[in-house]
Structure formats: structure tokens, C-alpha cells
Design goal:
single chain, about 110 residues, mainly beta, four-stranded antiparallel beta sheet, about 45% strand, globular
Length: about 110
């Protein structure tokens, strides 16, 4: 996986391979919107790596003229979800980052 960025300099989603993470492949996900920055680690699908995510973006690019409904991609553990829709000549992507709260120490 190489680094991928969606958006512009001030509002973007960036996926960066985690260095030396071993298997399964992991990525650092950074969502930046104005003054907000959220970061989490996403684990790839064990069998396919991030190939399904690449295919998701390829399908959006191939259908640049538009499609109906929402297209969704979700990470293996559900900590990253992307919902894309085509509206008024633009692709709109809703990004959901989720992190399970750590178990309280007993």
C-alpha cells in the first residue's frame, strides 16, 4: 500500500502504511477538517490486504459520470467506513472513524 490522500490541504483523509507493522497490513488513517484532526490505525483484510479498498476507489473513478445510491466500504474491524454518493456532478464521501473504548482497568 502506498500513501493515499482524498481532499485538499486543509480538509482531507490520508491513509499511510504503518512502517514495519508486519502482517496483517495496517494503515494510519488521519482525518483533518479545519481545526479537527482524528487519527486511528486500521487493519486490512487478512486475505486481500487493502485491495478491496483500492477496488472501491477504482469503481468510483470508473463511474465518474454518476451512480445512484450510496457505495460503502468498511474496514475489517469497522473502525473506518466510507460512504460515497454522486450528487450534482461531484462525489461526496462521508468518513466515519470509530474506536472502541479500551476496557477499564480492574
Amino acid at each position: 500500500m502506498t500513501e493515499a490522500r482524498i481532499g485538499d490541504a486543509t480538509e482531507c483523509l490520508t491513509l499511510t502504511p504503518e512502517p514495519e507493522s508486519g502482517q496483517p497490513e495496517r494503515a494510519i488513517v488521519r482525518l483533518t477538517l479545519g481545526g479537527l484532526t482524528a487519527v486511528t490505525i486500521v487493519v486490512s483484510d487478512y486475505a486481500n490486504g487493502f485491495h478491496d479498498l483500492a477496488s472501491y476507489f477504482e469503481s468510483l473513478a470508473m463511474d465518474w459520470r454518476g451512480w445512484s445510491g450510496t457505495r460503502r466500504w468498511e474496514s475489517l474491524e469497522g473502525d473506518l467506513r466510507l460512504d460515497a454518493r454522486h450528487a450534482h456532478g461531484h462525489v461526496q464521501v462521508r468518513v466515519t472513524l470509530r474506536r472502541e473504548p479500551e476496557a477499564a482497568a480492574a
